Amino acid sequence: TPRAWWKSNPEKTVAHGLEDSLLFFRDILQRDRYDGVFGFSQGAAMAALLAALLERPDSYPPFLIDGEAPHPPFKFCVAVSGFKAPGPLSAETFGTSYSTPTLHVLGRNDVIVIEERSKVLLDLSQNKRLEEHDGGHFVPSKANWREFFRNYLADPLRAVPSPELRTVSQPAPED
Fold first, then answer.
1. Residue 38 phi/psi, 5° resolution?
2. 10 Å Cβ neighbour count for 150?
3. Which of 5, 109, 135, 140 has its CA 20 to 30 A from that of 68?
């Protein structure tokens, strides 16, 4: 059975079910504490939306509990193959930007979430870091990426070296 945090209309302008998913997360966030959030594809869109919503909980009043956010803002967000969720709720929540430190990971050959879709989310992210891999629509899992994610998640505000740094024996691709 396909699972999703919302279902989009064919034009990708409406996110049916997004409100129910946000209330589901509100209840989880009220019970437990998290330093950050990590999402892939639609999960990355949801992760970024939650990060923005915790910064501006008044933008969606049903998310509030007794007039307060259910959780403090996240310290970080990781969005792999992310994009901006469609619809007015997302537009209102993000406004012109959000400030949670966000690691955006994009596949250079991703044909599901193409660069133009990811760029919209990147442009909303005030405190962003972009890393790219040569693959497509997946979370990179080679040893260098596993080490990068482990180090990044241990301290997201530290300057963790890129997993894609080239050595002298690996020249940069020609343009």
1. -130, 125
2. 10
3. 5
